[in-house]
Amino acid sequence: MADLDVTTLHASLTDRALNSMNFLNEISHHYPDAISLAAGRPTEEFFDLDDVPRYLELFAAHLRDRGLDEPAVRRTILQYGRTKGIVHELVARNLAVDEDIHVDPEAIVVTAGCQEAMLLTLRALRADATDVLLAISPAYVGITGAARVVDLPVLPVPDVDDLLTVVKGARADGLRPRGFYVMPDFANPSGLSMDLPTRHRLLEIAAAEGLLLLEDNPYGLFPAAGVDRLPTLKALDTERRVVYLGSFAKTGLPGARVGYVVADQTVSSGGLFADELSKLKSMVTVNTSPIAQAVIGGKLLDCDFSLTAANQREREIYAGNLQTVACHLASAFPQGEVTWTVPSGGFFVVITVPFAVDDELLTTSAQEYGVLWTPMAHFYESDTPVNSLRISCSGATGPQLEAALDRLTALIRDRLS
Amino acid sequence: MADLDVTTLHASLTDRALNSMNFLNEISHHYPDAISLAAGRPTEEFFDLDDVPRYLELFAAHLRDRGLDEPAVRRTILQYGRTKGIVHELVARNLAVDEDIHVDPEAIVVTAGCQEAMLLTLRALRADATDVLLAISPAYVGITGAARVVDLPVLPVPDVDDLLTVVKGARADGLRPRGFYVMPDFANPSGLSMDLPTRHRLLEIAAAEGLLLLEDNPYGLFPAAGVDRLPTLKALDTERRVVYLGSFAKTGLPGARVGYVVADQTVSSGGLFADELSKLKSMVTVNTSPIAQAVIGGKLLDCDFSLTAANQREREIYAGNLQTVACHLASAFPQGEVTWTVPSGGFFVVITVPFAVDDELLTTSAQEYGVLWTPMAHFYESDTPVNSLRISCSGATGPQLEAALDRLTALIRDRLS
């Protein structure tokens, strides 16, 4: 007999969202020789172990410049630290430089990756069983999973045009929509972006309906070749309607696991929403590793707060890969029976095929074709079959990307015939 | 009007536990010149920034020794990583060397500090509104706060002798006790330890009642002078009754924010409890910073897995400070109107006085006497006034500790007269 009965454990553990993530993580371990077009990991092309001590030294020098003596420098980096973080001022400067977002550093909570930022935000917003989260559909598995962990149901919103209908429907059912999760720039998994009028309209709906917008922006710095960036919702937000979820995993260094949330909303009990999130953080991770923060802080200092500049080479790789994928698919499937998105940036292309795309097909693909990708079904709330798959253009490059696309093309052709 | 009404946010945010932690954090920022006997932080005496790159290099060399090529070494430390961690095998060796605990590394989840280990464990164990956590009282604020975050009520257990009564009472009330949280070695905040017969008895009760024991052990490596360590519950656990919550904050480096949980219980759905905690972790922090893990991994390699050996100097400081405190208090209060604990190790001494000890007195102490400590009331579930305070012997040393004790003595004397 097992020591623990799974039915006595939290319901999220048997939920699709958590097991999706687990399945997707595990399959890459099971087939280490398969080329991965699955994970949205940044390129490893420019990884350099020497960067870590270099960034640490830059951050330590910055602390000395600010008047800290050596014991204080050591304490800041090596001791327990401020719950809201030690690089909040540097993050605020980065947001001003890269995003034209201007916020009080006190409104920033530095987190153990953007995932913790999502978890804290959803935990704060889920007060009782009538609370629901609205999320653009298809949605990043991490937001759905975090919602499950805090017992917050997710109502899918296929398009901004559907938002009002979903809000009104939820309210008619006695539910309280707490926020609407969106990724306006080069979204995961759809690859789609919102145009500027849609961004303005969304902010208007949020104001009219008293909705918070949870804006997640991990890919904004990576537009495709020739594409100009649009302002984020937070940059357009004049009424503190937007909670901005920030990540340094793609633009800083994934191994630091440093993210943040901008939560400048005022709270009736006094202080900012960031202060409430900080209280929760003290019970989730106490504070984000100051060593890891110092690494990211050093990188921000190194690039004079412009991660756009620091990621020029990466941007070129991703933009080139998006073109490679589009060319490859166009020459492989000229007949129209297979279609794909041509995103204006980011990591992801969605391919739609005239047959079922499920975990079984993925396993076959890994085992027999040596290529990994993600069934789009993992990003939807319902169990309805979805005939499409997501590939990521961030990991494999050059001949490896070509080989992966050849393998994927072979799989699709075999299924078509 | 505020943007967010606090009554629409999660109840934990207005709970005593989360606001305690916040108050205690904030007061040290408000009175930076006060000497702190409040925080249970490790000594900064031997902090060295150069240790960080040195440990990183040791860990990288270890990966090379295991056959990883340079891209794989860089990927392991700088990329997203395994959800359960990358130093689990090193942690297992450390547990064998320091604690005579022998576990499969797959039963270990490396976490963003021990706080995340607590949160994941409590989240997994809280399935519905009948679930309750039992906790030794007084209890560490972090366990109470983590329980609040996952809506898990805490029933205080003043002594192991009371455990059966509390369990039976809870069951009679229709509640389901999911586990009993204890810190058997040099507990925070009481300073007390369990003797060996009590440890055996506790394991017997756990087996008879089908209870999990959640053992937290941040201070075990710091016995007082001349004191021999006792085996942990996990070392005595032959039936997988104990979930072991591990911290490197006091023995490794607090700025790494690396902890872990040993969860070797089998689960009816297959796999270990650690695998379930890992699924939750993927939605809380994705994975613990591999850079931070590499720092701790390097330290474990550096000391040949004996943190006991690595902390010899720290142990001497803490043991010396415990003696200094005992001597100081004995000479200051020879009459018996003030009493204090003489713990057999760890960081904490509890002083009991014949007057109310509350946050107001702490504020006076910080402002007028220049010394910080912690009102014991923060560690109890009920609002009953508690006439005692906790001081920590880990932060201040030598003349600074003497000065802090003089200030505290002056405060107590002024209140006595």
From TrEMBL, chains A, B:
Residue intervals of the Aminotransferase class I/classII large domain: 77-408
GO function terms (MF aspect): transaminase activity
CDD domains: AAT_like (cd00609)
InterPro entries tied to this protein: Aminotransferase_I/II_large, Class-I_PLP-dep_aminotransf, PyrdxlP-dep_Trfase, PyrdxlP-dep_Trfase_major, PyrdxlP-dep_Trfase_small
Co-factor requirement: pyridoxal 5'-phosphate
Keywords annotated in UniProt: Aminotransferase, Pyridoxal phosphate, Transferase
Pfam families, per database record: Aminotran_1_2 (PF00155)
This protein's name: PLP-dependent aminotransferase family protein
Source taxonomy: Bacteria, Bacillati, Actinomycetota, Actinomycetes, Propionibacteriales
